[in-house]
Queue: 2 jobs
Job 1
Amino acid sequence: MNPFHYGSIVRGDYFYDRKEESDRIISTLANGNNMVLFAPRRYGKTSLVFKVMEQLETMGFTCIYFDFLPVYSIESFIISYINAIRKKQTNIQRMVKLISGAVKNIRPKIGFDNFGNPELSLEFTENQVSAQTLSDVLDLPEKLASSGKKTLLFFDEFQEVTKLNKYGFENLLRSKIQQQQQVNYLFLGSKTHLLSEMFNNKNRAFYNSAFHLQLGTLPQLDTIAYLQSKFELSGIKIEKEEALYLIEQTGDIPYYIQLLAAEIWQYMITSQTLVTYKIIDTSASRIIELKEDYYHELFDRQSEMQKKLLIALTCSGENIFSSHFTRQYRLSAASTTQKAVLSLMDSGIIDKNNNTYFISDPFFKRYLQNYA
Ligand SMILES: Nc1ncnc2c1ncn2[C@@H]1O[C@H](COP(=O)(O)OP(=O)(O)OP(=O)(O)O)[C@@H](O)[C@H]1O
Ligand SMILES: [Mg+2]
């Protein structure tokens, strides 16, 4: 089996490093504070949070993970949220009793799934979810916590909460967070610029509401050791220089390191035992070949300005609003560049780190360098 995993949460033996960050998150939350975790896409935020939750559970906290990405309406939020809370309750009867007592306009019922396991179903008694119902639902974790263990909420893809703002969601949640004594929150998301705006803009509800933690890349020496030990399991050797070269090809992004390593392993497993620069290049090219149609379509879909900007970003991502950059890459006014930047960031195609912009997928960048 391929020793490199990518695409979903990595746990146990597949997760390395992040000790310092884990410790920071744990002590912040355990001390009764809230936190927001910033990192570009695919740096390992969700995996880190799962690791942290495991540790906090052993310390006696109840940890509830909630992903805002699939939320599409206020009802869907309520159903998923209550179910996320319910997953942590061993006693479903108690949960039903709690909801019946605490949320006036929702009737909980116990049903059974296809396997005969008890299942919670919710019936809304109002035509439209009222502010009161939402408020009651947001209080559930505190009500549960007050009967014993402290509770921690992990809100992933939190920038998506803006979808619910027509219900005054951000403001309401902020006020709940301030009132609740037994519950703390960790916020994270893959659209850094939106998340950053939520927590750094004085006019937004979450301004100044949480400690900030910026997640960087994984330390290269640890990555090299990890790559060497995983390849070694299959009798494959990779020298430090080649491992470093592999990392460089991926823009040092955790997800793409694992993707490229998996491709190299696949390429070598039956025939070769030493990773060479050539094998790394061949594997990187194979990844691009496999994604070529998608990359072509992705590029094609962009406006002319966005295309120009993407091509420019394959060379440099610094001072992109300067007149020098504009002239060099034949862009128009800085305001037009700004619009293209926002649109590309909203769709997750580009990202920003310390005022430098970059193409999120290093293989898309290579595709653009070679083909566009
Ligand atoms: N600490 C780690 N050890 C090993 N691999 C990691 C680590 N962190 C991230 N990865 C790699 O990155 C991939 C993506 O991780 P994860 O989904 O946790 O990132 P994310 O930042 O939440 O991504 P997204 O921005 O898409 O939500 C993992 O599947 C794994 O291949
Ligand atoms: Mg994630």
Job 2
Amino acid sequence: MVPDRPRVALATAAGLGFTDPDEALALTALDQAGIEATMAVWDDPGVPWGDFDLVVVRSTWDYTARHGAFLEWAASVPRLANPFAVLAWNTDKHYLADLERAGVPVIETRWLEPGDPPTFFDRPFVVKPAVGAGSRDAQRYEPGETGAAAEHVARLHAAGTTAMVQPYLEEVERGGEQAVIFIGGHFSHGVRKEAMLGEARLGREERISARAPSDQALAIARYALSVLPFRSPLLYARIDLLEGDGGAPVVLEAELTEPSLFLSHDAQAPTRLADAVAVAVSG
Ligand SMILES: Nc1ncnc2c1ncn2[C@@H]1O[C@H](COP(=O)(O)OP(=O)(O)O)[C@@H](O)[C@H]1O
Ligand SMILES: [Mg+2]
């Protein structure tokens, strides 16, 4: 008798208006690996999540406005990758402070909790929410724009979110942002992302190109993963770095929840993901 093919759901969001190019590549590679994979919307009440051998969180990019509901959903799914504990830790950028305490070079950040008076930097700076994704509500300000920045902080506080203030690392305009992608606990590939907060806002895919990380960026990314408060290797992880003032990379984000893995920028990446999913469902 032929054993049943494992069944896997890739969790996405409804009505994004566009799809992540990762999805088609992942579905094809999973099919080739003998896995029956379908897309499913995370907040669709009709999806029988418990019927899947694994639910893989992918393009759930609308969770930031409903953080609590998203974590409730994640806690309710019996077999989820990355697991609930990882998502609970990673969907709030306060995790950057944990990484910093563990010795990871992290971008300088001021945390303005609701009620804290705003203070800014005497150089171009960024205000963004602690629960955020896709550059939403992230904005760059000049040192003279403290009035507008304070209003931005007040809006984030009114929405119940901690505001983060960081120096704007201008090197991003030249060197871009380096993303380091890990699949199944192993380094897979790297991409460069164009600056998102500058004048030119390009189309989503135009902003990305394949670029291997420097040895230093790769070492920092590996170190960041090694100090995470979780034991087993993660199915997927993406560490985003910017070049700091002194020229050395600093971590901007550790994306362990719903990162684009930019699978189209490395010929082997879709197969790596499918193989890692196959290991996860058989384990
Ligand atoms: N401190 C910063 N200096 C320069 N660019 C920044 C800074 N913070 C954010 N950006 C830009 O804004 C984008 C979104 O910010 P990020 O921290 O990655 O939040 P998210 O991707 O979760 O929305 C980044 O990809 C980067 O281009
Ligand atoms: Mg980002």
